[in-house]
Design a protein that fits this description.
Number of helices: 10
Distance between the termini: 74 Å
Number of strands: 15
Oligomer: single chain
Mean pLDDT: 84
Structural class: alpha+beta
Radius of gyration: 28 Å
Largest sheet: 9 strands, antiparallel
Number of domains: 3
CATH class of the largest domain: Alpha Beta
Helix content: 25-40%
Shape: globular
């Protein structure tokens, strides 16, 4: 009797449990079938069944009412492929239009995603278009800026039109309350030609992709799309954005100096103890409708909070050199364009990155030593 009981205990521990317990055997079989089905169906099973329903029904947001019809492409547009394109052409289900310029800083965060959307969704009827809408005078005067950007950022994958007289840009400004004519603007249009979503300065591109997926579902496209990879800068607004033209009242209000900011040439005394986002000038500068230009011993000072800093400049020479100093140190938090001595070599007019940090720089003093005749159009600080 004792031997029989001992043998039963040994068999209980040494042999597979499922052989002796039907309930455990059933759990193992069901679990194996579920695991096999998930592997067979792929990640879209998890996305759509476990996560997708909740996210697509509640998380993504459309910034437009859906009651405003989109302006159409006019005859004034000059397309890089020589074709006169129309919105939702070739049985398109969704149109994505990106308004950009070669010196647009936030556009850099959008180019890759747009090319990805073109690749992923074109076969489902998504049409991506680029509209070149220059911000600064050197972009209008030099079409090489346009050509170089097309090649550099992979925009040959979709049609790009030049809005020379800003007819299309102005039409969207009038049609949409959320459209901003400066910087990167992405507009998403449904199959019926109505505005559904606008993305300003490449914020929350993941949400924009969810809108595309929702509009494809509206258009009766039967496909389970995987959830988009979340973007780092979801709600990270630009921390500092200074336009140095004489029409930007926000930038004028953030200027600090004993000498009042005014048009034309003037000598300025550099102020210390600035607050975050404020700026000051030292030396002789000239201010006009598009920029400020260093005349003699030009120094630009500001206080920044963020990880990346860019400047948009206009150069009159083949080579110019801009000095960059953070909290009285040179060559720190520098991108590859800036050397170890904190000097940026400028070879043409355009946008240049001057600060690159892995961590957030909190209220750091930034001073730029600006060579004579160099124009500065914009300084922008991004949170990540």
């Amino acid at each position: 009797m004792y031997q029989t009981l001992l043998w039963r205990r040994i068999k209980y521990f040494l042999e597979p449990v499922w052989v002796f317990r039907p309930s455990v055997r059933l759990m193992v079989v069901v679990g194996s079938l579920l695991f096999t089905s998930m592997v067979f169906l792929g990640s879209t099973f998890l996305d759509d069944v476990l996560l997708g329903v909740k996210i697509r029904s509640s998380t993504f947001q459309e910034s437009e009412s859906g009651a405003v019809e989109s302006p159409g492409f006019g005859s004034n547009l000059v397309w890089n492929d020589g074709i006169d394109h129309k919105i939702n052409e070739n049985k398109g289900n969704v149109s994505v239009i990106h308004f950009w310029s070669s010196a647009c800083v936030t556009c850099r965060d959008a180019y890759g995603r747009l090319a990805e959307w073109q690749y992923k969704y074109n076969k489902y009827g998504v049409r991506v278009y680029g509209i070149y809408s220059p911000q600064f005078d050197f972009e209008v005067d030099d079409l090489k800026q346009f050509e170089n950007a097309i090649n550099k950022y992979g925009m040959k994958r979709y049609p790009v039109g030049i809005d020379f007289n800003f007819e299309l840009t102005d039409a969207f400004v009038k049609a949409s309350d959320t459209f901003n004519s400066a910087g990167s603007v992405i507009v998403i249009i449904d199959k019926k030609g109505f505005l559904r979503h606008t993305i300003i300065d490449a914020n929350n591109l993941s949400n924009g992709e969810l809108v595309i997926q929702a509009l494809l579902s509206e258009a009766k496209v039967k496909h389970r799309f995987p959830l988009p990879v979340r973007q780092a800068r979801i709600k990270g607004k630009i921390t500092t954005n200074i336009y140095f033209n004489n029409e930007d009242t926000n930038s004028a209000n953030s200027f600090v100096g004993k000498d009042k900011l005014k048009d034309g040439e003037q000598i300025y005394t550099l102020e210390e103890g600035l607050l975050d986002g404020q700026w000051s000038l030292g030396g002789t500068w000239s201010r006009n409708e598009s920029s400020i230009q260093a005349v003699k011993n030009g120094v630009l000072s500001t206080v920044i909070t963020g990880k990346r800093v860019f400047v948009v400049v206009g150069s009159a020479y083949a080579e110019d050199y801009l000095g960059v100093v953070i909290d009285r140190e040179s060559g720190v938090y520098r991108p590859p364009e800036v050397d170890k001595d904190g000097v940026l070599k400028i070879t043409n007019s355009g946008v240049y990155q001057i600060i690159a940090s892995n961590k957030t720089l909190n209220k750091k003093d930034l001073k730029l030593s600006v060579p004579d005749k160099l124009k500065i159009y914009q300084l922008i600080v991004l949170p990540n």
